[in-house]
Specification:
Blueprint (H helix, E strand, L loop, with lengths): L2 H20 L6 H15 L2 H10 L6 H14 L2 H12 L10 H10 L12 H26 L6 H21 L4 H36 L1
Helix pairs in contact: 1-7, 1-9, 2-5, 2-9, 3-4, 6-9, 7-8, 7-9
Length: 215
């Protein structure tokens, strides 16, 4: 796999996830709050997951190791933004369901911190969610401030502002990787794209079930 092929695969997966994300019922307060709670589920661990993966990164990918360490610092405290958003919306974390799909996604991230695996695979998750913030972040942010308030969009605002720079820096690193590493990341992107779409669909199913019960 050369870089052009990798980029095409990435763009296709990102487009699929972004379209599903834009179609999510952001105008439903419970739906948005459920998304926030599930995002909090992994966001609170992101700095540690990045650090763990950095600690076992192959020596040849020292640049990625350093990138992960910097990124870990940048992600610190983002879960607090989500907690402020939920408080404004009138919810507590314990009020909201964590989908099995997000639990599976979160737990799989620790896989890349094992010495027996190529930690570069964590980059698949990183470029997917940061690319998603670039492709769908503005759309979602505008939906939230339209239906609620900017006070309910602290987390979204932060990532919409910061992630364009993050994704550009990430691709500067990706261009330097060899074929084997690109294939590992490509496989990771395929997996996490599928998993994130499954999470969104699962969240929508829970919301629909609650709506039916209420009616």
């Amino acid at each position: 796999m050369n870089f052009k092929q990798f980029k095409e695969l990435y763009d296709q997966n990102l487009n699929n996830v972004a379209n599903e994300c834009k179609a999510f019922p952001w105008d439903n307060k419970y739906a948005y709050s459920t998304w926030l709670a599930n995002t909090h589920y992994y966001a609170k661990e992101t700095p540690r997951m990045l650090s763990l993966s950095a600690s076992v990164m192959p020596e040849k990918n020292r640049a990625v190791c350093y990138r992960f360490i910097r990124h870990a610092c940048e992600e610190m405290g983002h879960e607090k933004q989500i907690e402020r958003d939920l408080k404004f919306l009138g919810y507590k974390l314990n009020d909201l369901p964590i989908t099995n799909e997000m639990k599976m996604c979160h737990r799989s991230l620790s896989y890349w911190g094992q010495l027996s695996e190529n930690a570069i695979g964590f980059m698949g998750w990183v470029v997917l969610v940061e690319g998603l913030a670039v492709e769908a972040g503005e759309h979602v942010y505008n939906q939230i401030i339209k239906h609620y308030s900017p006070k309910a969009a602290n987390f979204l605002k932060s990532h919409s502002d910061e992630d364009p720079d993050h994704i550009n820096k990430a691709f500067m690193v990706l261009k330097q990787l060899d074929v084997v590493d690109l294939e590992v990341i490509a496989d990771s992107i395929n997996m996490y794209s599928h998993q994130y779409i499954s999470f969104l669909n699962s969240a929508k199913s829970k919301i629909q079930a609650i709506s039916k019960e209420a009616s």
